[in-house]
User: What shape does this take?
Amino acid sequence: MLNFDEARFLRIQSGAVALAAPIHAAIGAALAQGGANIFFLGTGGAAILMQPAALMLQRRSGFPAFIEIAAELVAAGHQALGPQSIVVIPSVSGTTSESVATLEYCKARGATVIALVGNVDTPLGRKADHAFVNFAEDDTSSESFYVQSLLIALSVMAHRGEFAGYDKTVAELATLPGHLVAAKQAFEPEAERLAEAFRNEPYHIITAAGGSWAEAWYYGMCILEEMQWIRTRPVHAADFFHGTLELVEKGVSVVVFKGEDAYRPLTERVETFARQYTDKVTVLDTAGFGMPGISAETRALISPVILATLLERLSAHLEVKRNHPLTTRRYYKKVSY
Amino acid sequence: MLNFDEARFLRIQSGAVALAAPIHAAIGAALAQGGANIFFLGTGGAAILMQPAALMLQRRSGFPAFIEIAAELVAAGHQALGPQSIVVIPSVSGTTSESVATLEYCKARGATVIALVGNVDTPLGRKADHAFVNFAEDDTSSESFYVQSLLIALSVMAHRGEFAGYDKTVAELATLPGHLVAAKQAFEPEAERLAEAFRNEPYHIITAAGGSWAEAWYYGMCILEEMQWIRTRPVHAADFFHGTLELVEKGVSVVVFKGEDAYRPLTERVETFARQYTDKVTVLDTAGFGMPGISAETRALISPVILATLLERLSAHLEVKRNHPLTTRRYYKKVSY
Assistant: This one.
């Protein structure tokens, strides 16, 4: 595979799933100490990657779960934040200034802070009540935060007796890193073909639903916009029909991510529509990638992880074909803002 | 003012604020009958217009409030939805198929449904437990749903003893329609100037924060994309710095909506950044429009309403200058999907 370090990838992904036991212990301790709600407070892409876990918890668990824009929470507070709160803050660098400010704000209100970081010897790592470290050299391994936040959400439900399949699911997730490598290998030729097709494409409407919506939003904003300077319009598959559809005509790229959760039919509706009105429809469907031993229920939960791992291959080819390294920026870490 | 029917506008806006008392009574009755949580379940633009009220309730009230994508709720349910739920469904037409499906789904689970409609003799109006009717000939009067959902949220807080200023705020809101007309008049020359500047602009990054973020999202998706076929990238002011900023360069339009709530500094950060790197920065600031008798606290709550009322003027000029009526569609009500 092009520019792919398999050993490094497996190390990062295995590191994420290996956190299941310590995360489960920390959540158990926080609940035993009176934890009564949970906040997912990321910044930018790291916030988006926790959305599937937060949504699952909101929709399936009686445990109050909030996913807030961290900068807004710090600006004006939240009635449910206090000593009874468990706060999850992810930051690969462990130094993101907004995340450090969020941690300090929440600690000042007595919350228990769980940090997900790439290095413990950082402001976030040192100041958190629980710091879970998964060394990652860069911030494009988005699978890791999806998995870690999912482990947190499943742990909350398991401790509360709301999810009987916890042990089975964690055992399945332990096999995920190898499956992801196999999926990348299977997708590699299509990734190159897609990168060629996208090479000079100036604009993409990108859509998805359910847990996979996060990946449409993330890939548009944090990869295509930030790392390739390509205009995107991430739009939820349900919203698509209430405005954005009118932009579709011949020559307009519509990219549909299809996951395997209950919300898949919403994306199929967009696909059916788009195929009638533009010649540029790209569908990325997790269902095409077999993963023996992983149940349908778990596949529904990890659909955004599978999408992210496939899309990493697209990004690898895009940066080469477009002669635009993923690390090149106009502003980030170049000017202050 | 260009293509503006003042009497009709005042009738619609006065109709919205006149619903304060019946809404307050209905919410009181629902709470007395065991109402224990509230769901805001709109579709497309109508969903977005309830977001400021839902966010305020989530952040300031202990009453559990959910704002869900209706199509997703119907696809896979929600643990908190049941006989103890108050469900708010807005639809000007009262016939939106997704909204009717949502109503039936929620009624089947015993929830109390409040419909906000333009005509009571519609599927939504007839089947709801409480139907609040505010006759509106078209669906571009977005101010009305902002105000009605705000009245619902404030009523919940007032009944629970969480908002002492309810009577004062409602009295202030009663004067809003006239203030909105005055704001439109003051903005009219600027609206024409802006429409001229936007006339041939193919793409806008549109951003805001707090309650006003809904209007950035709504105006991009439901007006510029749907009604003018102009590409937009609605992005929250906090997210802007985590990807979309890299698209900014000379010639790229960045539109910043500034409201008057606690989240205003997030938008000022984008404005400061954008002014350094593009020559096309448009700032729409509610603070420039005086409304004697309306308190700072209420202005913070109604900032998206003020933005919507100013932007309606921009739309009125855009459709003329671009020779593209706001009612022209490629697909909506022309093909089935």
Observations:
- The CA atoms of residues 6 and 262 of chain A lie 32 Å apart.
- Chain A has a mean pLDDT of 96.
